Structure to design on (452 residues):
């Protein structure tokens, strides 16, 4: 027999506890636990006819993967080449960042290709979606809209219309009738996602679910939610700026390193085919502390501007601030500059920023950070036609980076005439590049190549 008991869940991260706690051990949030009812025990037995038998790996047919193209190249890139039938994709992001806008534009492109699409909204009315569709030029008479938060009814409509792609906006508004908890609670979100996953696999339907995020930028609800779905996409960007980044943090059907770059306009999201040009737009020339680095985002090389400012401190302990670059990495590079390059920065505040709102974890940006700090400290500008790549070790050595030829090619395409590259990356392709490639072995070589 099924039993009912009460468990405390963290509303921020989904951490479970048998008793109430003031601080969540998972996300360290205060007063986030709420009491919910859960059903334990078996609710029924599986009939022998419904049991699935195991197969030898050699007996499994290797069918070619067929994907549905959205004709939004940046979205297809992040998804790994298109929508996989039977997949469950979770899209998260801050409110107003553009999640619903992108999905509505995607639905319009799919319907134009005769794909059966069902857009389910539990937050907006039919007239609101229709007006937004007209504004985005995503208005098609064959697009089916459904405003309902009853999961049983949604499942029935998906089967009735034989939908190939389904949008659930959002998962926190859906509710299963057999669960007493309110929509958006941990129990409801987990149960709804589980049933949608089963529906996607049994009917070979691709389902996109929109998830609200917490104050820390993570998808609200249980942490197992991200493990249940096939792909997790995050929308990043500042609402005050038009740049939007779509990043895959999990993808069973493609790379998790790819990003899609969009620009928010009055008519919806526009693809940015040349991110390097967008990130370098408005870059000041011949200004101390400014340098261009070539970073890799998946298979794509992107040029971005990295800025540093070194100023006299007014505090007993100098300030260290970084935006877009790992804070601890910046402190490490400052220590290397002091020890290996003889630059005493103990009486100076250091600020490092990636222009354009991009967040970088590529170790190839180390040399750019160090040279930008050096440029601001010496008050000498790095030539605007020079780009930099390289990873720095604690001994002051400059280590090789991956995809060096792609980075050099991108710099050449963007009109740069000189590039600083680690000596260990030297190859015939780089020697024959269309721009001047300067090889450096350590920090001293890089400083000498840039400042003489």
């Amino acid at each position: 027999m099924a039993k009912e008991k009460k468990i405390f869940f963290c509303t921020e991260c989904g951490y479970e506890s048998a008793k109430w706690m003031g601080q969540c051990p998972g996300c360290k949030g205060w007063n986030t636990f709420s009491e919910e009812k859960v059903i334990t025990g078996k609710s029924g037995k599986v009939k022998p006819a419904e049991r699935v038998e195991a197969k030898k790996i050699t007996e499994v047919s290797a069918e070619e993967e067929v994907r549905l193209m959205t004709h939004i190249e940046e979205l297809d890139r992040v998804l790994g080449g298109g929508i996989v039938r039977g997949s469950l994709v979770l899209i998260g992001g801050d409110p107003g960042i553009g999640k619903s806008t992108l999905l509505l534009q995607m639905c319009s492109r799919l319907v134009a290709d005769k794909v059966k699409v069902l857009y389910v909204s539990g937050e907006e009315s039919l007239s609101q979606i229709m007006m937004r569709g007209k504004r985005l030029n995503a208005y098609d008479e064959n697009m089916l809209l459904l405003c309902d938060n009853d999961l049983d009814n949604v499942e029935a409509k998906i089967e009735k219309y034989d939908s190939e792609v389904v949008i659930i906006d959002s998962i926190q508004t859906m509710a299963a009738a057999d669960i007493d908890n309110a929509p958006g609670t941990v129990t409801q979100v987990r149960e709804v996602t589980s049933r949608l996953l089963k529906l996607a696999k049994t009917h070979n339907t691709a389902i996109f679910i929109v998830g609200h995020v917490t104050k820390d930028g993570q998808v609200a609800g249980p942490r197992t939610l991200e493990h249940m779905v096939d792909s997790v996409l995050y929308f990043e960007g500042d609402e005050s700026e038009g740049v939007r980044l779509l990043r895959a943090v999990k993808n069973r059907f493609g790379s998790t390193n790819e990003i899609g770059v969009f620009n928010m306009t009055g008519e919806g999201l526009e693809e940015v085919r040349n991110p390097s040009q967008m990130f370098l737009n408005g870059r000041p020339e011949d200004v101390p502390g400014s340098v261009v680095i070539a970073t890799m985002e998946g298979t794509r090389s992107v040029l971005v501007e990295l800025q540093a400012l070194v100023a006299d401190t007014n505090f007993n302990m100098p300030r260290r601030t970084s935006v877009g670059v790992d804070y601890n990495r910046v402190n490490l590079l400052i220590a290397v500059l002091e020890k290996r390059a003889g630059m005493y920065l103990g009486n100076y505040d250091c600020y490092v920023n990636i222009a354009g709102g991009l967040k970088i974890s590529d170790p190839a940006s180390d040399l750019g950070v160090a040279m930008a700090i050096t440029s601001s400290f010496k008050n000498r500008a790095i030539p605007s036609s020079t780009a930099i790549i390289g990873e720095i070790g604690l001994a002051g050595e400059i280590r090789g980076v991956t995809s060096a030829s792609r980075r050099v090619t991108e710099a050449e395409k963007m009109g740069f005439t000189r590039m600083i590259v680690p000596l260990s990356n030297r190859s015939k392709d780089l020697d024959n590049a269309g721009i001047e490639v300067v090889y450096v072995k350590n920090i001293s070589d890089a400083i000498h190549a840039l400042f003489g």
About this structure: The two ends are 80 Å apart (CA to CA). Confidence is low (pLDDT under 50) at residues 42-47.
